Amino acid sequence: MNRSKRYETVRLFGLIPFIVAVDVAIKLIVTRFFMGTKLLLFGGFIGFNPHINREQMGINMELSKLGMSISNEANIFLNILILLFVGGLLLKLNYKRIYGRAFAVGSAIGIASCICSLYDKIIWGGSPDYIYLLNSYIIDLKDIGLVAGSIICVIAFFRTEHNKSKN
Question: Whole-model pTM?
Fold first, then answer.
């Protein structure tokens, strides 16, 4: 990898602290000034309804279907393991510049969102969610980032692999 490509990857991963700071700032404002506020639009299709989500934390939502759950401490430990494994893998793939700039952007968004998830569990014991969606889900910027980062990475991966198979 030449020096300019390495610099570009480092610059793109400079997005991580910015994304984390924006997420934390929004949550501090929401939890400080808007808890208990509810504003639903389009018949509840979308809206603003902040609360600390402790019931649907990641794996607990799936485990609850089986009548099980895990503690917040175990959730924190799992988040750290996932962040180290997935983050390390994404950093290695980006260092080699196999999948391009879009993959690096998706990776940065995904890693930042994972850090935000870990921060939420440590500081609030759950996730301060505030975006009411589809009459039943309450999400936040981190959740949007996790989905968006994953989609960007998957598209970049398949696009690159498709182009390799053409050659």
Answer: 0.84
